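Action item from last meeting closed. Structure (232 res):
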C-alpha cells in the first residue's frame, strides 16, 4: 500500500512531466508558425544554450509581422509558453524543497551519488518505486521499470528483441535520460557504452547502460548508502 503523502508528491512530479510535454508542443507550434510566415531565426539563437533562452524569448516577443493578426498569433503562443515555463519553475522549486524533507532526504543523497542522477530524477525514482524492498530481485525491478527485452525461443537458442512496451513510463524515461548522461561522464559506463555501440545501435546500447544504472539504484536504496565505484 502506498502512503497517501507519497502519492500526492508523485502527482506533482508527474505534473512536471506533463508541463514539459506541453512546453515542447508550444515550442514546435511557434517554430511551425515562424516557418509558415517565412521568418528566419537569427544564427545566434541556433545553439542549444541559446535556443528558448530568455534572450530568444525576448526576440520573439518583439517580433513584428506584416499584419497585426500574425503578430497577435505569435504573441498568444509565446504567452502560453511563458506561463507554462513559470509553472514548470514553480514545480521544480517545490520538488527540490521536498527532496530535503522526509521521507526523501536520505534516498536523494544516495541516488545523487550515482553519475547521471540528479535531484529531480531522484525524486521520480523515489516516488515511483516507493519501497525498493517490494522487489525481491533486480530482474523484477527491471521488469517493473520496463527495461526487460522481449524474447522467444527458437530451437536451442533464445532470441532477444526490442525493449517491452510496458512498465512504468515515468521511471523508464527518468532512468534512460540518466543513462545518457552517465554514458558521457562515468568512465566505466562510457567505456561500456562504446563497446556496446560496436555491435548495436545507440538506442539499444543505452538500454544496457540503463540496466547497469538500475543495478546501482537498487543497491544504494536497499543498503541506504552512497554509491562509489565498484559497488553494484
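Sequence:
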Amino acid at each position: 500500500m502506498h502512503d497517501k503523502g507519497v502519492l500526492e508528491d508523485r502527482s506533482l512530479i508527474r505534473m512536471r512531466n506533463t508541463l514539459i510535454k506541453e512546453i515542447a508542443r508550444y515550442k514546435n507550434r511557434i517554430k511551425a508558425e515562424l516557418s509558415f510566415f517565412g521568418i528566419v531565426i537569427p544564427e545566434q539563437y541556433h545553439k542549444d544554450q541559446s535556443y528558448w533562452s530568455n534572450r530568444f524569448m525576448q526576440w520573439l516577443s518583439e517580433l513584428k509581422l506584416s499584419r497585426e493578426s500574425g503578430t497577435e498569433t505569435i504573441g498568444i503562443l509565446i504567452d502560453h509558453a511563458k506561463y507554462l515555463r513559470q509553472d514548470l519553475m514553480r514545480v521544480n522549486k517545490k520538488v527540490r524543497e521536498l527532496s530535503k524533507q522526509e521521507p526523501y532526504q536520505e534516498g536523494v543523497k544516495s541516488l545523487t551519488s550515482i553519475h547521471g542522477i540528479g535531484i529531480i530524477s531522484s525524486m521520480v525514482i523515489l516516488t515511483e518505486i516507493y519501497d525498493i524492498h517490494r522487489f525481491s530481485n533486480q530482474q523484477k525491478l527491471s521488469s517493473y521499470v520496463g527495461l526487460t527485452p522481449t524474447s522467444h525461443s527458437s530451437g536451442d537458442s533464445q532470441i532477444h528483441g526490442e525493449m517491452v512496451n510496458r512498465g512504468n513510463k515515468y521511471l523508464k524515461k527518468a532512468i534512460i535520460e540518466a543513462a545518457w548522461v552517465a554514458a558521457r561522464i562515468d568512465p566505466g559506463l562510457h567505456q561500456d557504452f562504446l563497446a556496446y555501440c560496436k555491435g548495436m545501435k545507440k538506442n539499444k546500447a543505452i538500454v544496457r547502460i540503463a540496466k547497469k544504472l538500475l543495478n546501482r539504484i537498487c543497491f544504494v536504496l536497499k543498503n541506504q548508502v552512497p554509491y562509489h565505484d565498484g559497488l553494484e
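Note appended to the action item: The beta strands are 149-154, 157-163.
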